[in-house]
Amino acid sequence: MRLFAPEPAPALDLVDIHGQPIMTSSRGRLTLLSFFRDAACPFCNFRIYELTHRHAELAERGLDIVAVFSASQADVLRFAGHRPRPFQIAADPTSSAHELYGIERSLWRKLKAIVTRAPTLLKGMRLVGLAGLNTGNLMPADFLVNEHGRIVEAYYGRDAGDRIPLERVEQFLSRPRARRAA
Known about the structure:
EC 1.11.1.24, oxidoreductase, single chain, 182 residues, 5 strands, Glutaredoxin, alpha/beta
């Protein structure tokens, strides 16, 4: 079941790839919580690449980024975590966190992304190789969580490559504190 603003962000019982707990609620920080598909997903790895390159400017504006993959720890380390990342990345091998946040599955929307987002698919395939062809049907989702642990925006991907636009994240960071809390 999908989550909506201004619900509290459900607590995650996960640790990142370095053994640190994932904290998303009542932290006093702004958070972009991104749910990813399989660790070999080309679309997902391209987004990790984008977030890595934009991290310094987003962090300077007060944003924490948490990436959660529906994959084993070994697969996350092999693909998304094989290079140092400046934000937390976690494995969710049972997809329990994905279920808690209402992440959806759709073969049709996966195929739609392959056809309509071919340039991004190819960029992502350069990062993961042929392993990117064998991914599941989970859809991506992103949540902007305010400093009070409440969801400000829930963005469920319309297809396997659809993510919250980074412009929306920047708008979230630009809002006055009082409006983010509402």
